[in-house]
Amino acid sequence: MPTDISYTSLIFCFFLLAIPIFISWKIRLELEKSTFEAVLRMSIQLFFAGIFLNFIFDLNNGLLNLAWVGLMIFFASYTAIKSADLNVKKLLVSIILAIAFSNLGVLLYVNKFVINLENLLDARYLIPIAGMLLGNTLRGNVVGIGDFYKDIKRNENRYLYSLSLGAGLYEATRPYLRKNLKAAVKPTLANIASIGIVSLPGMMTGQILGGASPLVAIKYQITIMIAIYVSTLLSATLSILTSFRTAFDEYGLVNKDLYGKNT
Amino acid sequence: MSIEPLNNELIKYENIGISFDNRKILSGFNLSIKKKQKILLRGKSGVGKTTLLKMLLGFTKPAEGILYFHNRILDSRTCWEARKEIAYVAQDTDLGEGKVKTLLDDIFSYRANKEKLDHEKLQIFMKELELKGNILDQNFQELSGGEKQRIGILISLLLNRNIYLLDEVTSALDINLKKKIADYFLAREDLTLLVISHDREWERDWIEIIDLENKSWETPKPNSQTE
Questions:
Q1: Least Cα separation, residue A154 to chain B (angstroms)
Q2: Measured between CB atoms, does B115 come within 8 Å of chain A?
Q3: Which residue among A171, A175, A250 sits closest to B110, beta carbon to beta carbon?
Q4: Strand boundaries in A140-236, DSSP class E
Q5: Counting beta carbons within 10 angstroms of the beta carbon of residue B114, is it exposed (0 to 12), middle (13 to 18) or buried (19 or more)?
Q6: Which residues of A touch B159 (CB under 8 A)?
Q7: Beta strand extents in A109-253 (DSSP E only)
Q8: What are phi and psi of B39, to 5 degrees?
Q9: Deepest of B75, B171, B187, B193, by most Cβ within 10 A of its Cβ?
Q10: How confident is the model at residue B108 (pLDDT cuts 50, 70, 90)?
Q11: ipTM score assigned to the predicted complex
Q12: Is B54 within 8 Å of A160 when comparing Cβ atoms?
């Protein structure tokens, strides 16, 4: 077992924040408030997550584990739409379906065929891996769907011109789909290629700190990176495609209320 | 569906009104266009000329009035048909990013345009439009305004449609080209033309001129159409 961190020693970790606060104050980055807010939010969220996870791990009930992942998917979808500054009401259902399908699909496949678990819904595997997948695909989804619709809006004349040339909805949106899906997975690909040299990823670090052999840790890492790549591209693609039904009107134009106030 | 009997009326604007930001800029506009008719729309900018064209493609909905296409109301279903029958050329054609050739191939990969790319015709039209052969390998975004305009015209010609909406398509071209292009389109008897242009080259004695500022559609001259 790794050495525990006592609550008093955690305070020493918070002391480190004096550095960004000082820089922010000195150069007037005006990040003091957001730093406090972000750290406070994280601490509270993790504190509760710790209590819940402890409880869930003890029970280790398959359905409950799945329900917990469902909740994570809901928040991931909600956050993705919010961060992309799009209309939550219009998109939530399609994004949840897209993210749930791709992440759960990849996750269960990995549990079954790669890790060879007896119990596919084992909390110790299901929840952390779901967390890794969702956390990593979230960025891809925000970039994918957010920039897709922003791109169409920014190039409205170009988009309308394709429609005027006789393009169907899928034909007219294809260039935007191509461009923004590429942008969504490029960082993941770059990340995959640099792992082991530039970075030692969180999961490997965790496993090694937890006492696992680095040789075991790398196999998990390879598995998780591939799973992340697959689910990022799959969920970004499905998110965009399933959003068409509510995002476009029958004329093939983007519904005006799709965009948030800041877009 | 229109209640009127079938006729060769292709397009009909009926009491069309246009507003921008709740401000009315045009109201009670009526215009009926028959097949093969050639019409020149005029009036200073902001009177709604371009909007009238875009309306035919379903890009804006009239604030009031009804637009008919082939005697059917132009709505969310019929607009898709209209987009396959009409060639629309804007003042500033924007094809997107990439090589002209790739972008052209993209357009002709649409189901509606499959097998319409005739390479022989492409060469002929390019020559007529005074576009150099290597333009196809250039990046579209790096072309000049005049070149982009001619690419827009080129595409519309390759699409080989019957109805042409031309919105200031010769504004960035030199006088010879303006004349050549206007002459070409106006001589094509099979085409229905709806033209917006400030270029004199498009004016003819016989072309019907609709002046949006003077509301000329309200007092049609009895002999305005002598064909």
A1: 12
A2: no
A3: A171
A4: none
A5: exposed
A6: 165-166
A7: none
A8: -130, 135
A9: B193
A10: very high
A11: 0.90
A12: yes
